[in-house]
Amino acid sequence: xxxxxxxxxxxxxxxxxxxxxxxxxxxxxxxxxxxxxxxxxxxxxxxxxxxxxxxxxxxxxxxxxxxxxxxxxxxxxxxxxxxxxxxxx
Length: 89
Fold this sequence. Notes:
- The chain is α+β, with helices and mostly antiparallel strands and about 90 residues long.
- About 35% of the residues lie in helices and about 20% in strands.
- It contains 3 helices and 3 strands.
- The protein has a 3-stranded antiparallel sheet.
- Helix 2 crosses helix 3.
- The two termini are about 25 Å apart.
C-alpha cells in the first residue's frame, strides 16, 4: 500500500525575498538580478507561505479576511504558478 504524501507546505525559495516597496506601494519578489512586482493580493498570500502552513491552512486564514472570495480555486492556482517559476518550494 503506497504511503500518503504529506500536504504541501509552500515556502519561498531561499534566494528570493518578499518586500513591500513603499514608493510603488507594491509587493515585490526580489531575486538575483531580477525583481517581480506582484499584483493584487499576491504578497498577502506569499507572506503566509512560511513552510509551516499547508495550502488549506493558507486558504482558511485568507478566508477570515475575504469570506466571499473564491479562495479554494484561486489560491492553489496562484501558488502552482509561482512554484512553476521555481520561486516556491
